[in-house]
Specification:
Mean pLDDT: 92
Low-confidence stretches: 1-11
Structural class: alpha/beta
Oligomer: single chain
Distance between the termini: 27 Å
Order of helices and strands: EHEEEHEHEEHEEHEHHEEEHEHEHH
Largest sheet: 8 strands, mixed
Strand order of the largest sheet: 3-4-2-1-5-6-7-8
Radius of gyration: 21 Å
Shape: globular
Helix content: 25-40%
Number of helices: 11
Strand content: 15-25%
Length: 340
C-alpha cells in the first residue's frame, strides 16, 4: 500500500481530487482552502503514480496517482472536474461527492457532457453523485434545469496568518482573473473617468489572452494590469501585500445563471478590511449582498467612477466593513467535515 501511504484509515478522512487543467482561479483556491482548513490531502490523476509530493501552491502539496491507484482511495471528494477529466468520472463509485461551482461546468458538449447529458444506459453522472454546491443560485440552477438535488454548503475559508507585509500604495484594486465573465473592461473604462490618478484601479490576476486582445487592448490595460500574483493565501505583488491598506476591492463579475453569493476574491478582500464594490447584476441574484449594507453595488463604469471620485462617508465605511465581516465569519466557522 506504499502507493497511498499518506492515506489515513479513518472514516472521517476525506481525500480531495482536483481533476481540472486550470492552475489559477476559484477551483484552485477552493481546493486549497478546504485542504488547509481540514488538513485534507490533495491528489491529481495522471498516467502514472508518483511517490513524491508536488507543490500545489497556497502552502499545499499534492500527489499524482494513476487511475487504478486513485480508485483505491476511499472517501474521495472531487473538488473540480473539467472536460479533460470527464472520461475518469464514471469509474468513481456511486455517491462520490462532487463540487459544482458554477453553471458553466454543466453546459452541453458536442461529444456529450456526462455530468448532465445522458450517456448510454448510465444516465447523467451527477444523478449518481452526492452533489455539493457553494452558491444557492447554482443549487437552484441544477434543480430547475436538470432535476439534480444538491447540498448547499458555504465556501470554506481558511484563516491564513496575515503577515502585515509592506503594502502597495494602491487605494483601489481588483484581484479577479482578467476575463469575459469578470467584465474587466468596465474597470478600465471607469479609470478613464476617475479624476485622481491615486484612485485609479489596478488589476492583478491571470489573463484570458483572447479577452485582452479583443476587449482591452484599446483601454490602456498595460498601465493598470500588474500580472499574476503568486499562489499564496495572502495576495501579494513583488513581496508587498495587495489588499492591506487598499480601501476598495472591485469585482465586476457577472456569470449567467449564477451570482448572489461569495467568491474567494470577495472573502479575501473582507479579511483584509477592504470595501467590496460589486456589479448589481451579481448582487440581485441573491439576498446575501446588499448595496450600502455590506458592499457597494454599481451597474456600469460611470457609477463605478462616481463612487470612487466622490468617496463614501466614514460612518458608511464602518457599517459596510462591520457587516461584511459578519458574512465572512459564516465561511470561517462552516464545518465541512461534519456537514457533508
Amino acid at each position: 500500500m506504499d502507493v497511498i501511504a499518506n492515506y489515513k484509515e479513518d472514516s472521517k478522512q476525506y481525500n480531495l481530487f482536483y481533476l481540472a487543467k486550470p492552475i489559477y482561479g476559484g477551483w484552485v483556491t477552493f481546493t486549497a482552502h478546504l485542504s488547509k482548513k481540514h488538513n485534507l490531502p490533495i491528489y491529481k490523476i495522471t498516467k502514472k503514480t508518483e511517490k513524491k509530493e508536488r507543490d500545489y501552491g497556497y502552502d499545499c502539496s499534492y500527489r499524482n496517482l494513476c487511475l487504478s491507484d486513485a480508485l483505491k482511495i476511499e472517501n474521495p471528494i472531487l473538488t473540480a472536474i473539467d472536460k479533460h477529466y470527464w472520461p475518469f468520472i464514471t469509474f468513481f463509485p456511486k455517491n462520490t461527492r462532487i463540487i459544482i461551482h458554477d453553471p458553466t461546468e454543466c453546459k452541453a458538449s458536442k461529444t456529450g457532457n456526462p455530468l448532465v447529458q445522458k450517456i448510454g444506459e448510465s444516465g447523467p453522472v451527477l444523478h449518481n453523485c452526492k452533489v455539493i454546491t457553494i452558491r444557492e443560485s447554482v443549487q437552484d440552477y441544477l434543480s430547475q434545469t436538470f432535476k439534480i438535488d444538491s447540498q448547499f454548503i458555504k465556501h470554506p475559508f481558511y484563516e491564513y496568518p496575515q503577515n502585515n507585509k509592506e503594502s502597495l500604495s494602491f487605494n483601489c484594486v481588483s484581484i479577479s482573473r482578467i476575463d469575459f465573465d469578470k467584465n474587466t473592461d468596465l474597470i478600465l473604462k471607469a479609470n478613464q473617468l476617475i479624476s485622481k490618478k491615486e484612485n485609479h484601479i489596478y488589476l492583478f490576476g491571470a489573463e484570458n489572452r483572447i479577452y485582452v486582445h479583443h476587449k482591452l487592448k484599446d483601454l490602456n490595460i498595460g498601465e493598470y494590469w500588474k500580472g499574476k500574483f503568486p499562489k499564496k493565501f495572502e495576495p501579494e505583488y513583488e513581496g508587498k501585500s495587495i489588499l492591506n491598506n487598499a480601501k476598495y476591492m472591485i469585482d465586476m463579475s457577472i456569470i449567467k445563471q449564477d451570482g448572489g453569493g461569495t467568491q474567494y476574491t470577495f472573502l479575501e478582500a473582507i479579511y483584509h478590511n477592504c470595501i467590496l464594490i460589486l456589479h448589481n447584476e451579481w448582487i440581485t441574484k441573491g439576498s446575501l449582498f446588499q448595496s450600502g449594507i455590506n458592499c457597494i453595488g454599481v451597474s456600469n463604469e460611470t457609477e463605478l467612477a462616481t463612487i470612487i471620485n466622490n468617496g463614501i462617508t466614514e460612518d458608511l465605511s464602518k457599517k459596510i466593513l462591520s457587516n461584511s465581516r459578519k458574512l465572512l465569519e459564516d465561511h470561517i466557522s462552516v464545518d465541512w467535515i461534519n456537514t457533508i
